[in-house]
Amino acid sequence: MRVSTTKLQQLTIFTTVLTGGGIGTMYYLMQKNFAKSEYHRLALARLEMSPAAMEGLGAPPLKVHNIHLFDRDNRIDQHIAKVKIPVTGSKTGGYLYTISTKNPATNGWQLKLATLQLREGQTFNLLNTPDQPSVPALGQTETPDYDMDLDKSKWSG
């Protein structure tokens, strides 16, 4: 049985469109799940609570961009979420570096590190800033017991 070249071309085009649509849908749903996650919301809430960081960005308006799925800096498992969130304001942009751990007692996420680094190199520690009282991050029962430095070698890809 012979199949015409036209039929093969149509089949190839149909398969390509179907595969592209499936990949696009999967990417959209994964980004939506990241945006709805507690560790993502905690980090953004902490950023919005820092007037100095928001002013440095030129926010509001604050624009949160999609996480780069293939970036090795973004690692999430059952107990820890290490995420690099791209954000921009009207002045500049940067990355919100976060580390959250899951509290087994409450099954909730606790923000352990939240640092905004602007393109110009300015860095804001969002957990212990002069304009922020030293209180637990949203969802935390205690303050972080360590202060992690933003070591770029650990975050760059």
TrEMBL record:
GO cellular component labels: mitochondrial inner membrane
Keyword Transmembrane helix: yes
Region Disordered, residue ranges: 128-157
GO terms for biological process, alphabetical: mitochondrial respiratory chain complex I assembly; mitochondrial respiratory chain complex IV assembly
Sorted UniProt keywords: Membrane, Transmembrane, Transmembrane helix
InterPro entries: Coa1 (IPR014807)
Membrane-crossing residue ranges in chain numbering: 12-30
Protein name per its UniProtKB record: Cytochrome c oxidase assembly factor 1
